[in-house]
Amino acid sequence: MKHAAYALASVLCLTACNKGPEVNLKNATQGEAAQALKQSGLTQAGFTIQPGEWESKLTIQQMDIPGMSPQMAAQTKAQIADSQVATSRQCLTPEQVKQPKADFFTGQDKSCKYQHFTMGAGKIDIQVACQEGEGAAVTNMKGAYTPTSYSMDMWSSGGGQGRNMAMKMHVDSHRIGECSGKDD
After folding, report:
1. What angle do CA 3, 4, 5 make, to 5 degrees?
2. Cα torsion for 147, 24, 20, 169, to the nearest 10°?
3. pTM (2 d.p.)
């Protein structure tokens, strides 16, 4: 879940026009998704978001942890909101925009697999499942993007060791200008 929010800025380096090529995969590995994006032409011919400094705001909308009292859940949600950076900035270089990484939505977790992956025409719709111990976590991401902004809803559920946590988040991001050299 944590990887999804911060990876979105670099993920959306992949595309950003409301017309053009599209990638539509089912049951794909990280490498297969990266290869399909490369072959689709989404990363060439001007179908990329603009490099520069991007600002993202992450909002936790809902968090459910089975077996936890409502008071403890509210306290945990407040602690997460306080301990995480609600607003972050990231500098995307022209090189990053042109060469997306295979693990852009999943981080370094090699157990993850895209149940479905659709990107193109200014829309993105992804479901990724990752093994967590004896269980699995499923994350859904759905939203829209332009060359200078994106908005995405994310919801995750599951987890290993008998956990069945559920979380719903929203992220809004926009390009604020050229990179300043003081980015996170």
Report:
1. 100
2. -20
3. 0.71
Q: Which helix (H) or strand (E) holds 32?
A: helix 30-40
Q: What token pair was written down for 69? A: 């009292």
Higher pLDDT, 94 or 37: 94
Tell me which residue of 54, 60, 53, 110 sits closest to 80, measured CA to CA. 60
Nearest to 142 by CA among 159, 158, 122: 122
Residue carrying structure tokens 């990280």: 30
Neighbours of 61 (CB within 10 A): 12
* Apex 16 CA angle, 40 and 152, nearest 5: 110
For residues 119 and 28, is the Cβ–Cβ distance under 8 A?
A: no
* Residue that is written with structure tokens 């009292």 in the block: 69
Closest alpha carbon to 172 in 76, 110, 88, 50: 88
Q: How does pLDDT run across 96-141, given as a tens digit for each residue?
A: 777 655 555 555 667 788 899 888 888 889 999 888 777 788 999 9
